[in-house]
Design brief:
mainly alpha, 3-stranded antiparallel beta sheet, two-stranded antiparallel ribbon, 5 strands, globular
């Protein structure tokens, strides 16, 4: 629904940089939506089989290693991860000497990055696990207070202070998934979470210190005609004293144009790619997130020098299928969307059948590329895979037990 809603908004053409889309653009957007639905159905069945297999493996022992969830470890994991994130943030502040939220200069948040910042951002995903502990475990009041602070810090305080809307959205979606699914998927709960997310997102946007004039210059709201007048002569019998209402026009305020552009510019940039792209990158763009580990200069060079068509140089986002199109055109769109949808469907099915805490966290992270499909090729970004990697590590910490070696002398 988000996909269709943002496409509909983009078709209104409310800012000047927008232009009519190519027919091929409409076809590929429809193809992606249709293939995604097919992939979800396949993934749902696959997820049920995976859940059954994981259930059968509970308590499995390989050598001295035994795999079984230890719920009593979850509180300690939440506190430890939150503490690491907080410490890394403090170290980052000490290195830079300032906090982005309190700096008036525009764009200073982009210069806040150090290697410690990466760990601080990764730790923000712990919010969903903290809520799971609050909801499902019998805890002392002081432990509940600590978990509430961990949620507030990771989801609200830290993202606002570093002026990182992306970090906030990722953490908030993880928290939203936990709240929604652990409260019997009540619709009003979801609506409340979305309203809170929107409010905090606006705070993060305001903290970037753009003035109304700057926003108007950047996003160029169009002049919208509400009530076009008429220059036609009077018809026989028409009252000559009737006043022509004339044209009523208005422009989106700068902040509204900013939000509108956020929701739509990924699709407009995709149209630019469809209209202008001539080269193929043969799947290399999909390897971008893994190059953090691969360290291949060839991958970096191909991505850095490859085609990138934008409606405006500073509006750099492209929708979920953008990089897939640059890689393999329509075949890439169909292939990668099918694979992603199968994965997303399997993840959701695994949680719905097994109700495991870590499958819930994986599902929460999956909401980032799904809910923000209009804005970014999230599957080609490191952050999504980094959070999934963190969840895997936490799962191993919570589940693996080293079985003491038997002493043959005591037998």
């Amino acid at each position: 629904m988000i996909w269709l809603f943002t496409i509909g908004l983009a078709d209104l053409k409310l800012v000047d940089y927008q232009e009519p889309w190519q027919r091929a653009t409409w076809f590929l957007l429809a193809l992606a939506y249709a293939v995604f639905q097919i992939g979800l159905m396949i993934g749902s069945r696959l997820g049920e089989k995976i859940s059954d297999w994981l259930t059968a493996k509970r308590g499995l022992q390989k050598g001295r290693l035994k795999f079984e969830l230890h719920p009593e470890r979850l509180f300690g994991i939440c506190v430890a991860v939150s503490a690491v994130g907080l410490v890394c943030f403090v170290i980052n502040v000490c290195i830079r000497g300032w906090i982005p939220y309190f700096v008036k200069e525009t764009g200073m948040y982009a210069q806040f990055y150090t290697k410690f910042y990466l760990f601080a951002v990764a730790a923000s995903m712990i919010s969903g696990l903290c809520y799971y502990c609050l909801k499902t475990q019998q805890l002392a009041k002081w432990k509940k207070a600590i978990l509430i602070f961990c949620i507030l810090y990771s989801t609200f305080i830290f993202p606002i202070l570093v002026v990182s809307r992306g970090t906030f959205i990722c953490s908030a979606l993880s928290l939203t998934a936990a709240i929604f699914y652990l409260n019997k998927k009540k619709f009003w709960v979801l609506v409340t979470c979305v309203v809170v997310m929107f409010g905090v997102y606006e705070i993060g946007s305001a903290a970037r210190n753009y003035t109304s004039d700057q926003l108007n210059a950047l996003f160029q709201p169009s002049e919208i005609v509400i009530n076009p007048g008429t220059d036609n002569p009077l018809e026989p019998g028409e009252n000559p004293n009737h006043e022509d209402p004339g044209e009523l026009t208005f422009q989106l305020p700068g902040k509204v144009a900013f939000l509108y552009s956020y929701l739509t510019v990924g699709h407009d940039n995709f149209n630019e790619a469809v209209q202008n792209a001539t080269e193929y990158t043969y799947g290399i763009r999909q390897l971008k997130p893994f190059n953090v580990l691969l360290r291949s200069s060839k991958i970096d060079d191909v991505i850095a020098t490859g085609e990138r068509y934008l409606v405006k140089p500073y509006l750099t986002t492209v929708n979920l299928i953008g990089n897939a199109y640059y890689d393999l055109r329509w075949f890439g769109v169909g292939l990668f969307v099918l694979l992603w949808a199968i994965g997303f469907g399997a993840i959701e099915s695994c949680y719905l059948k097994g109700k495991g805490v870590f499958s819930l966290l994986v599902l929460g992270n999956t909401l980032t590329p799904v809910a923000l499909c209009f804005f970014e090729s999230w599957m080609s970004e490191f952050s999504v895979w980094m959070h999934w990697g963190l969840i895997l590590i936490l799962c191993l910490i919570a589940c693996i037990t080293v079985v003491p070696k038997k002493n043959p002398m005591k037998q």
